[in-house]
Amino acid sequence: MASMKKLPDAEFEIMKIIWRNPSPITTLQIMDKLSPDRSWKPQTVLTMLVRLAEKGFLTSGRVGRERNYTSVIEEDDYMQIEIEGFMDRYHGNSVGSLVKTLYDGAKLSEEEIKDLKNWLNERG
């Protein structure tokens, strides 16, 4: 799984739909759940689904005329890969560096800081 690469934004959007809906999901169901501001043609979506299957993210099968898709990797597992890559690239794998960046940029509320402290205390 560690060899899995970062998905382009468009493919990630398709995967979010697949992850957040019951499996298997059909092409038509995916099209119906796309954001209204996405004006992708069905062929564009089909091309992305084929790519995702080729990359090992999906399996597909036919039921009648409709093709169904099932995720091979769970959303949490993929997000872990994304986070590890981000942490390595931008923060040298330092959680402290990430938290400092968030704190210095006033991105953390007092409630979030409290939650973070509680989380850290729970882990020893």
Give a quick summary of the entry.
The protein is built from 6 helices and 3 strands, in the order αβααββααα.
| Helicity range | 55-70%
Number of domains: 2
Q: Report the CATH superfamily of the largest domain.
A: Winged helix-like DNA-binding domain superfamily/Winged helix DNA-binding domain
Number of helices: 6
End-to-end separation: 29 Å
> CATH class of the largest domain, please?
Mainly Alpha
Find the count of extended strands (DSSP E, 2+ residues).
3
What key phrases describe this protein's structure?
single chain, 124 residues, mainly alpha, Arc Repressor Mutant, subunit A
Task: Please give a structural write-up.
This protein has 124 residues and is mainly alpha-helical. It folds into two domains: 1-92, Winged helix-like DNA-binding domain superfamily/Winged helix DNA-binding domain (Arc Repressor Mutant, subunit A, Orthogonal Bundle); 94-124. Helices cover 57% and strands 11% of the residues. The protein has a three-stranded antiparallel sheet with strand order 1-3-2. A hairpin with a 2-residue loop joins β2 (58-63) and β3 (66-71). α1 packs across α3 (42-54). The protein is elongated, with a radius of gyration of 19 Å.
